[in-house]
Specification:
The chain contains 20 helices and 9 strands. The chain is of the alpha/beta class. The N and C termini lie far apart (46 Å). The protein has a domain of 280 residues: TIM Barrel, CATH 3.20.20. The structure holds S-adenosylmethionine.
């Protein structure tokens, strides 16, 4: 029975409710009066239910679609301004006991090179990432209680935070590891992580079990209830996502929104981020095998509909997608992107020798971080290396309350400009510096509060004198 407040996966991601929602959306997809009523509600910028948003997703009317995209842009601008938060993934280990059918780390894959970074290797990777200008990482690992126990992950986090190279430092470590226990989530919280990210892969239980035939990840309920355990362990910023291509996108879309509604209903705070990965080619994996792949046009509509249904969540797109696809996605809702990513274990310090192959999937956007930063600014976005919120205790509902009241802008814009200037001073090419300094000059005037503007100018000037890490 559908119950968003229940702590049981089968209740809050209820299959009958999803199928009913899809039936309802299909039957009313041409009801333009209803679509307009839902759009009116969406214009209040307080979100939509999974049913309402599913109807908009199913609606093929050109004018309705135009309004959906235009509202998504407006919402993004209002809550996130023109800032884009930058991060990079760091692969710690590809040892894995699971059998995820879409992932080359799957246990039976004998031709992938298995690697696990030592602490010295991690320090080298982190130095290389700092030398590019990164401040925020998402660590990634396969699930393997023997090779990658929680103690290993915690040790890696300590190493990452401890590396201080030139003016560099990693100031926020987000974690994307397999579902685990409340006790382990508590340990991650104590280690000072930012967001705990876990992709559902697919919300369809039957399909989930087929795609994860063995290993601990086979347990659908344990995986789906992970965010509740993370919250119980004290992690109040969690990141959702599905791997588009595994199941029908309309099913995943409804499931994803139901998961967000569940978190809000039970914990009083929805997802901090939503990621929208699509299945990619990888060693031993042919994406053609998954017959639910989606074209770019549908992908953009999914992003726009998530944007208007969950206005308060950050949205992430990775280098799985090409530069041109990322450009379109930024316009309709994305607020965080990775840059210069390597999905191989140890790929930042040195390129992998030809005979080795430890990467997780093919990357489409292969540009350097400087190229991505330069490109973003030419498109009118402010690349932000900000990590201030969780360091200032603005997490969970504190963050959401400020965001909903439109007050987060008072911190975000100054922090974005400060961290952009740090990047320009320490890592940027001449051309990027030129565009960046012009952008900062122009944007200072947009800081809403005069006192904040004056403090910002003082901090920006202090960066020129070699000081670092000011934050609002
Ligand atoms: N091992 C952890 C788990 O099971 O949740 C998480 C880390 S895994 C390195 C990160 C994500 O990569 C997975 O959750 C999955 O969605 C995605 N992924 C796996 N194979 C992929 C592929 N072939 N193409 C695109 N993304 C993929």
């Amino acid at each position: 029975m559908y119950d968003e407040r229940s702590l049981k996966a089968e209740d809050f991601i209820n299959d009958d409710e999803i199928l009913d929602t899809l039936r309802y959306a299909g039957e009313h997809a041409s009801d333009l009066t209803l679509a307009q009523q839902i759009l009116e509600k969406a214009r209040l910028k307080k979100g939509l239910t999974h049913r309402e948003a599913s109807l908009l997703l199913a609606c093929e009317d050109e004018e309705v679609n135009r309004q959906i995209f235009s509202l998504a842009q407006e919402i993004k601008k209002e809550f996130y301004g023109n800032r884009i938060v930058m991060f990079a993934p760091l692969y710690l280990s590809n040892y894995c006991v699971n059998e995820c059918q879409y992932c080359p780390y799957h246990h039976r894959n004998k031709h992938i090179t298995r690697k696990k970074l030592t602490q010295e290797e991690i320090a080298r990777e982190v130095t290389a990432l700092q030398d590019m200008g990164h401040k925020r990482l998402a660590i990634e690992a396969g699930e393997d209680p023997v090779n990658n126990p929680i103690e290993y992950i915690l040790e890696c986090i300590r190493t990452i935070y401890s590396v201080k190279h030139k003016n560099g430092s990693i100031r926020r470590v987000n974690v994307n590891i397999a579902a685990t226990t409340v006790e382990n989530y508590r340990k991650l919280k104590e280690a000072g992580i930012g967001t705990y990210i876990l992709f559902q892969e697919t919300y369809n239980k039957e399909r989930y079990e087929e795609l994860h035939p063995a290993g601990p990840k086979h347990d659908y309920a344990y995986h789906t209830e992970a965010m509740d355990r993370a919250m119980e362990g004290g992690i109040d910023d969690v990141g959702l996502g599905v791997l588009f291509g595994l199941e029908s996108y309309r099913y995943e879309f409804a499931g994803l929104l139901m998961h967000a509604e569940h978190l809000e209903a039970v914990h009083g705070v929805g997802p901090h981020t939503i990621s929208v990965p699509r299945v990619k080619h990888a060693d031993d994996i042919d994406p053609e095998v998954f017959d639910n792949s989606i074209p770019d046009s549908v992908f953009m509509k999914i992003i726009a509909c998530i944007r208007i249904a969950v206005p308060y969540t950050g949205m992430i797109i990775s280098t799985r997608e090409s530069a041109s696809c990322r450009k379109q996605a930024l316009a309709v809702g994305i607020s965080q992107i990775s840059g210069a990513s390597r999905t191989s274990v140890g790929g930042y310090y040195e390129a992998e020798p030809e005979e080795e192959n430890s990467e997780q999937f093919d990357v489409s956007d292969k540009r350097t971080l400087d190229e991505v930063v330069n490109w973003l600014m030419k498109l009118g976005y402010i690349p932000s290396f900000c990590t201030a919120c969780y360091r200032e205790g603005r997490t969970g509902d504190r963050f959401m309350t400020l965001l909903k009241a439109g007050q987060i802008q008072n911190c975000c814009l100054p922090n974005a400009l400060l961290t952009l200037k740090e990047y320009l001073l320490d890592y940027a090419s001449e051309d990027t510096k030129r565009i960046g300094y012009e952008m900062i000059e122009k944007e200072i005037m947009e800081v809403p509060n005069e006192k904040a503007r004056e403090t910002l100018k003082k901090y920006l000037a202090a960066l020129d004198e070699g000081k670092r890490d000011f934050r609002f």
